Amino acid sequence: MARLGPQTRVSYGPAVFGLFLLVSVVYPQVPQNSDLTSKGVQVGQVFVTPLAVGAVSPSPLWGLTKRPKQGYHFVLVNLRIVNTTLNPNCTEWNSKIVTDAGHKYGNQIPGAPGPPETENLPFQVPSQGGYAFQIRDGETPVDLSLERLYKIERNCWKSEGFSPVEQFVPTVNISLEGLPQPTSQLEPIQPCPPQQQTPSPRHKPSYTIIDDFSYPPIHNEPDPQRKIELLEHHIAHAPCSALNPFLYYDALQTYYQLGDFPSTIKYADKLLALGDKIDAASQNQVRIIRADAQGKMK
To answer: How far apart are CA 7 and CA 15, in angstroms?
Structure first.
């Protein structure tokens, strides 16, 4: 049962009594290049796992509203990082992508999509995000190169009052071979699978990579017209998203803010049709907004 409001989907570490057993195995390791069988690698204080890589088409959900320059295409790398130390994370880097032609390209497209959060990341808290690059047509990405920022990390160590024990490795290359394609909002729309008549109360919705990337910038978009464009695009191309109750609620509020009362009622009805998938307090709030919108149409 969802409660409609700001999302916090962060899993914190084990209880205090478990920390003693973990200290000896989670302290920073010496980073090394990943190989073809290992999809993750330790980089300073964090463990970095690449999740997907591939070409993506321009889409407002990725921040890729313009086409790549002639002779180039966009490539997206999705990854997850986890702080494996008991100290707030100080590891920082510049990301580049290495192709089979031996060329290296920088992260040239800020905000497409949001990169993983690294600054002061707490112990065992995961962060997921991605980097977008422009690479030449005909080239294939083979490695993600993380070039660490020693001066920034050193200042962070001093401010946090600790010194890392591992050797500082300035550049870490992570293999991208064998990874799946990133989930794309421009894929053909597929029908939602049939739902169980009586869903298990223990069932938890599965959030996809695209959900993780796209919902925060949509929810936080300050321009209501732009927000509606993003909401409608996501809802149309991801009809089975586990985040649809929250997207519907954002659409309900934004359409009401814009004075579009027919659309407000439309999304109120979508939300109420979800039944016990949203909590009673949220249902009542939706009914109040719907009644107000209905009254303003008369």
So the answer is: 23
Q: How many CB atoms lie within 10 A of CB 47?
A: 19
In a domain, 266, yes or no: yes
145 versus 274: which is more confidently predicted? 145
- Give the three-class secondary structure for 202: coil
Please tell me the predicted confidence (pLDDT) of residue 297: 83
Give the residue numbers spanning the domain of 222: 209-296
How are the residues of the chain apportioned to helix, strand and coil, as percentages rounded to the nearest 5?
Answer: 30, 20, 45
**pTM for the full predicted model:** 0.52
CATH of the domain at 33: 2.60.40
- The model's pLDDT over 20-51, given as tens digits with 9 standing for 90+, comes to 333 222 323 333 333 333 478 999 999 999 99
Element (H, E) at 141: strand 141-148
Sort strands 104-106 and 41-43 into parallel, antiparallel or unpaired: unpaired
Is residue 156 located within the same domain as residue 259?
no
